[in-house]
Amino acid sequence: MAQINVKVIERFKENLGKIQKILEQAKDRDINEADTVVIVTDILTLLFGYDKYTEVTREYCIKSTYCDLAVKIDGSVKFLIEVKAIGTTLADKHYQQVLDYGANNGNEWIILTNGVVWKVYKVKFEKPIKTDFVCEFNILDVKIKNRNDLDKLYIICKEGIKKNAIDEFTQHKMIVNKYYIGAFIRSEYVIEAIKREFRKVDPTIKFEVDEIDTIIVNDVLKREIIDTPEAIETNDKYLKTIKKIEKQKSKIKEAEKSSNDGTDCGQENKG
After folding, report:
1. CA–CA separation, 77 vs 5, rounded Å?
2. pTM for the full model?
3. What are the tens digits of pLDDT across the range 97-115?
4. Which residues, in sequence order, are CB contacts of 220 under 8 Å at separation 6+?
5. Rounded to 10 degrees, what is the CA torsion of 140, 145, 151, 157?
6. Spatial separation of the C-alpha atoms in residues 119 and 81, rounded to whole Å
7. What backbone phi and psi angles, to 5 degrees, belong to 267?
8. DSSP letters for 141-198
């Protein structure tokens, strides 16, 4: 993960407690959406380091509608934020709303929040348009000594955005996750390793690769690691990556063979 500089950590330490107290009081009062937007704006300033007069725009116009907040750096919109009242449970309809804003405005990064819970997404401009879920955090639960919490805060703060920390974080999350690990476990390389370990235990045991895979699928891994759309998509990506690697290796071998054949031929002619 990205290195967080001391200045940013000190800002987190100085302001996190204040913000948590403000949010607790706002929850108790069950404030409305407009007042929640005010607090979110303060969070963007105090915690995430943006200038609320030049880098945070309220009621950002997108076609015929308005997104609650847009965050800019050097005049360029870096992400859009849709804010709901602090007592609102963030739901699919709210996600669809902020996704529509991002898609219609051509923004890659979008955030959905009720001030307490923050959900960060990366828009994938495909057909149909969808997102990668980047991360979620509850500001009331954030702890300064927890590195994972700090990483999540850092990727959307001004310094993190300037250093593309959110890209690095997202790429790490897209690879190092339960779906990829599930795909690895079912790969031929891992199954071959399992077979070798079985032979150490009892060389007389006879078994098939399909038997091992069936046990992994039915008895070892959770169904969500195998059958969900995320799992299927990840497995397809992994298989395509492996196929691409094998193809590149094959090309290199062919080139080396061709080069060696040419050398041998030249030596024979010289003789």
Report:
1. 24
2. 0.73
3. 999 999 988 889 999 999 9
4. 185
5. 60
6. 10
7. -65, -40
8. G--TT-HHHHHHHHTTSHHHHHTTHHHHHHHHHHHSSHHHHHHHHTSHHHHHHHHHHH
